[in-house]
Amino acid sequence: MSYVDAGYAAAFGGLFLYAVTLVLRRRRWERALRMSEVPAVEADDAAAHGERS
Amino acid sequence: MSAVPATWRPRWLTVVGVLAVVTTAFTVWLGLWVTPPDVVQGNLARLLYVHPAVATVALYWAGGVACAGSLLYLWPRTRSFFWDRLAASAVEVGAVFSALTLVTGSLWGRPVWGVWWTWDARLTSTALLLLLEIGYLALRRVPADPHIRARRCAVAALLVAIDVPIVHFSVDWWNTLHQGGTILDPGFELHVHGSMLWTMLLSFVAFSLIFVWLLAVRYRIEVLEDAVGDQELEVSLAERWSEDTELVGAGSGTGGSTPGGSAP
């Protein structure tokens, strides 16, 4: 592999890998947000129930 | 419910992504197959369709956004977490571009200069930029109140930004092995011509579009992280509130079993 090929591979390969990790991180956080919204609603219900009792 | 939508795929981001892929493909095609070899450097000049553009993004685009975002956060009239998140995103993306600047520069320097690395002013100040960016990212992970963390990081980003003009002017201020301006000299005279010039300009467009896309996705992650943190805090507070009210209810029902007669 020449220095030119290595340079192109490093630049575009590095950016591609970083982009993939960003997309995966975004997906994981979106899933975490969806998961956290469900208990939040349940906790609100529980709090409202607690206030009533 | 959270005010942050769980999915966010704006059309403009898709357009930027597609344009980035197309311009990058053209840059690679022109850079590797269409443009002629240089008279002095031969095929090694093809690395100049990558390295200067990557360095420009690392230095000016990422450094500029991080500096502007931090200043706008610190300015009381424009203070908003939007600027803090934007600056943090720019620093992380900038760190990736800074690392690639050093790698592609080394791959060019080894055959042209005969060394992978030398303590040249331009190289050293660029390495310092990467270290400062890593320091900023480490500081951001230190647990703190969001306002304190944002203020602390804004000051740190301004320290990172101080290095940007040092990197830029390093080839003028010191005698360096690194060349001066790649496209323009200080008298604004062009060094590059014809297809080599157009390919180089296209590479600047391609890497700038990649930067915008990466910055937007990274910013979205910052928003999601904060939203999930807020949700978890709300859940914890709601659970705690629920436990407290149940305790009060139980205490008043039994004539007061808590030491003080009733919970505070």
Key terms for this structure?
heterodimer, A: 53 residues, mainly alpha, 94% helix, B: 264 residues, 6 helices
Could you describe the largest sheet of chain A, including whether it forms a barrel?
Answer: none
**Helix tally of chain B?**
6
**What spatial form of chain B do the alpha-carbon principal axes imply?**
elongated
Q: From the alpha carbons, calculate the radius of gyration of chain A and give it in angstroms.
A: 23 Å
What is the helix fraction of residues of chain A, given as a range? over 70%
Q: Report low-confidence residues of chain A grouped into runs of 5 or more.
A: none
Quaternary state of the chains: heterodimer
Distance between the termini of chain B: 29 Å
Low-confidence stretches of chain B: 255-264
Greatest contact between two chains: A-B, 35 and 47 residues
- Assess the beta-strand content of chain A as a share of residues: under 5%
Elements of chain B, N to C (H/E): HHHHHH
Give the C-alpha Rg of chain B.
Answer: 25 Å
Verbal overview:
The complex is a heterodimer of chains A (53) and B (264). Chain A is mainly alpha-helical and 53 residues long. Chain A has a domain at 21-53. Chain A is built from one helix and no strands. The longest helix of chain A is centred in the middle third of the chain and has 50 residues, at 3-52. By secondary structure, chain B is mainly α. Chain B has one domain. In chain B, 72% of the residues lie in helices and 0% in strands. Chain B is elongated. At the A-B interface, helix 1 of A face helix 1, helix 3 and helix 6 of B.
